[in-house]
Amino acid sequence: MHLKISHKIRSVAVAALVGTSLSACATMPGSTVPAGAPITQAEAQQGAEYHQQFVEEFGGAVTGPQATYVQSVGKKIALQSGLGNSASAFEVTLLNSSVNNAFAVPGGYIYVTRQLVGLMNNEAELAGVLGHEVGHVAARHSARRQQAAQQNQILGVLGQVLSSVVLGDNALGQLGQKISSTVPQLATLQYSRSQELQADRLGVEYLEKAGYDPHAMAMVLESLAAQNALDASLMGRNDATPEWASTHPDPASRVRDALQLANGMTGITNRDVFLNRIDGLMYGDDPKQGLIEGRTFIHPVYRFEFTAPEGFYMMNGTTAVSINGDSGQGQLSTAKFNGNLDSYIRSVFAAVGGKNQQLAPQSIQRTTINSLPAAYGIVQVNNGKQNVDVTVFAYDFGNNQAFHFVTITPAGRAGIFNSMYQSMHRISASQAGSVTPRRIDVFTAQRGDTVQTISSRMAYDNAKEQRFRVLNGLSSNDQLVAGQQYKLVVRSN
Hints:
Blueprint: H1 41-57, H2 65-79, E1 91-95, E2 102-105, E3 109-113, H3 114-119, H4 123-138, H5 141-148, H6 193-210, H7 216-235, H8 244-247, H9 251-261, H10 271-278, E4 282-283, E5 291-293, E6 296-299, E7 304-307, E8 313-316, E9 321-325, E10 328-334, H11 341-353, E11 365-369, E12 372-382, E13 387-396, E14 402-410, H12 418-423, E15 425-426, H13 429-433, E16 438-444, H14 451-455, H15 464-471, E17 485-491
Parallel strand pairs: 1-3
Antiparallel strand pairs: 2-3, 4-16, 5-6, 6-7, 7-15, 8-9, 9-10, 10-14, 11-12, 12-13, 13-14, 16-17
Helix pairs in contact: 2-4, 4-6, 4-7, 6-9, 7-9, 7-15
Domain LysM: 441-488
GO biological process, one term: proteolysis involved in protein catabolic process
Signal peptide: 1-26
């Protein structure tokens, strides 16, 4: 959760999130420019208008040498598209987000998250991902998908995700489609099979023109699939299909197609250059936005901590933390607070219901949780399929600062989240100061080093070897090669 949320009332709701994503290029309103045409003045103006809002929604921009390096690669590959005739025609941003994501929008604006960059293993992979997204823009796929789907305004539904099975199709059911950046991702339209193949073909074409190994496209797709499978396993989810698969259909066959497109082509990967340039890049959550450690979320800036119930997993976004499970979903966020918890809770219910669904609890109960003044209200509604309980549980942190959970459960099962409500507590200044980010540490394997011995240094409490293998694109049988560079995830000093 980013600090800016304390100044805004966000529309909050619950959704079943399906893992990390590599989002498609965003849908910009109303473009009718033919495929392959250079960037128009109107597109450039649109991109400039939305740029800062995109950056803010994705946790801000990373600056420094790592960002400069990513910008140079992004501009180099984008230049191959013909959208612009100079590098200055493109704006490439490295986003401070812990979600695997990349996208490009009309106007020459290209984005990639530091998390996705950290998952890559060479410069050609970075160029391939960005080239694929630029390919969608060059082909004007977003405008064509937008026309097919009528209207899908980006910033009006930023963060749109699939509705939970708990929710229905009426006004309440639509809450699952109104999450505001629970996970930082663009509201995108699913691309058709033919559009994906065209973007892949363009991406491979750009790689070849720029002198990169076109096989890199398939390699990064495999890494993403492996990461999503690992994340699903660690979260206890049965469905390992990433959100990426909903916007980029049929990833398994696309890996094969990408390899066929690159058949016979050669080029550079710049593996060592890439690894040396991203050495030290933050990996995972930024402490300034809070961190998830297992089932516990800790925010060292706001100085609080809570734990999700057994069997639930969390996703951290720039404006909220989502809590997801088979028996219910929830969100932790904040809103404008004047010191009155009753009115605060009623305003949250009103925001959740929106214009079409008026939600108001019959009563609000006061309590104290770990010395924090707290209050809660419950509303039972029918979503068209079943009755569900919507609960708002809020805490007064003083100094006109409050936080609240919004949860949705089947009727009569609101108590599923009681342990989470009870776990909210302040942390001390020393506890907050001890929270440090994880970073990528690039090292050179020595003779005698093994995956098992090196992966034991990964800064996690579980699945160290699996995480190390996925991070470095290693199969279950691959071993370290002496003299070759690899990535570790370590704690910052």
